[in-house]
Amino acid sequence: MTRQNHSDRTRYRLLFWAALATSLIGFAPLISATASVVTASMMGCEVNAAYARPCIVMGTDISEALYTGFMSLILILFTAPVILVAAVLWILFGVFRVRASTAASSLSPSIPPLKGRTAE
Question: Quick count: other Cβ atoms within 10 Å of Cβ 62?
């Protein structure tokens, strides 16, 4: 492996992990709200923005936790710029990957024509 290939590979890994981390941070409120709604639905409870309805699971009231998770969705307003940064990072990652694969394919030897056939 050449030094250039190693630095490109390191750059791709760094870009991938940066894009993944910013995506997770940006979408954390949405993931939290979805988990709260799914959990409440599985337990037969209801979650809404008005107040925390009682939800007893194994003798414990989890309504406040579900309500907090659901209401964290409003934080998506603050993480929207992080989502935009993540989108740009994913686009850059895709462009670099396409460029790398195009460069690698241009370095590979071309397939010679079959015997008895001429190139047109």
Answer: 19
The count of structural domains within the chain is 1
In this structure, what DSSP letter does residue 58 have? T
Q: Can you tell me which residue has the tokens 């997770």?
A: 24
pLDDT beyond 60 at 14? yes
Angstrom distance (rounded) from CA 91 to CA 97: 10
Residue 71 belongs to domain spanning: 29-98
What is the chain's Cα-based Rg?
25
Report which residue type is found at 90. Answer: W
Q: Check residue 49 and report its DSSP letter.
A: S
Instruction: Confirm whether 63 is domain-assigned.
Output: yes
Q: What is the pTM of this model?
A: 0.68
